[in-house]
Prior knowledge:
Layout: E1 2-8, H1 13-26, E2 29-33, H2 42-47, E3 58-61, H3 64-71, E4 75-79, E5 95-100, H4 109-114, E6 119-120, H5 133-147
Parallel strand pairs: 1-2, 1-5, 2-3, 4-5, 4-6
Amino acid sequence: MSINVVLFEPEIPQNTGNIARTCACTGATLHLVEPMGFRLTKHFVGRSGMDYWDRVNVVRWSCTKEFLEAHGHDDLHLFTSHTTHVYSEATYADDTYLIFGRESRGIDTDILTTYQSSCVRIPMAEGNRSLNLSNSVAIGVYEVLRGSAFKGIS
């Protein structure tokens, strides 16, 4: 089981720190796609209270296009509120990519359109825009792990 968490242009270092901690605790690889709203320095990761960075496999990408050229045909799951498909009904491959957009705007519409059949959502009460990014990532990662009977973690 190989879980890949992909953040398209993350803006808030504390969210990225929390997500890195989730990745460290679950063995997921963290893909950070530029541009980011912060620099990945000790100052910023320190602010997130994250002492797990040395336990996370981080892959950096210069832009969304570069990532999609490399992985556009892999098992992608784009988390968005702009779909009817619920994340818990998706089928996840042994090597899967959970993709999340910016905190302020999510994933660009043209990407969602291109990968429409790969879009999933997390249900929430009517009238709410979105969950916190790090909470959404944790929900997605643990759904994949639950579906595999938590293979690879104890």
